[in-house]
Amino acid sequence: MHYLWHAVRDDAQFITVKAGKTSTLTFNFGNKLEPGWYMTDLLGVDSNGSFTMIGRSKFKIVDNNLLGDVDNNGLINISDVSAIISYILSNSPNPFNTKHADANGDGLINISDVTDIINIILNKSE
Fold first, then answer.
1. Which residue from 60, 39, 54 is spatially nearest to 116, judged by alpha carbons?
2. Which residues, 6+ apart, have CB-to-CB distance to 77 below 8 Å?
3. Exposed (0-12), middle (13-18) or buried (19+): which is 44, by Cβ within 10 Å?
4. Are 50 and 89 in the same domain?
C-alpha cells in the first residue's frame, strides 16, 4: 500500500509501508501556515489507483517561530529539554516560552512535549 499526502504546495509524495509495519511521517510547513488548528487526512492508494481514507489528524501551528525553542535562544537543543523538565518539576526556568514548550499542541506542557522536542533534535540531521 502506498500512502499519499499533499503538502501546502500542489504536489504529492509517496511512501511505501509493508503490512504490519509502521512509519513516521514528518511534515515541515516552514512559514507557509498561519498559527491555528489544521486537519490532515491520510489516504491509502491501492494498485488500481483507488484511494481510501486511512485516518484523520488534527494539528496545531503555534506560531512561525521555532517550536521547541523553549529558552528562546534560536536553537532547539538539550537546554530546551532541560528547561521543560525543570518546568514540569515545578521550577521556574527563565526564560521559558510556553508556546514553544507545548511541542505537540495539546494545550499541556508535559513529558509528551519533552519526547517531541527530543525527536525534533534527533531528526535535525536527517
1. 60
2. 121
3. middle
4. no
What's the pTM?
Answer: 0.50
Domain that includes residue 87, residue range:
78-123
CB atoms within 10 A of CB 69: 21
d(CA 112, CA 66): 17
DSSP class of residue 63? -
Average pLDDT of 29-49?
71
Domains held by the chain: number: 2
Residue with cell 513529558: 111
Distance CA 39, CA 62 (A): 14
65-99 per-position pLDDT tens digit? 688 999 988 889 999 999 999 999 999 899 899 98
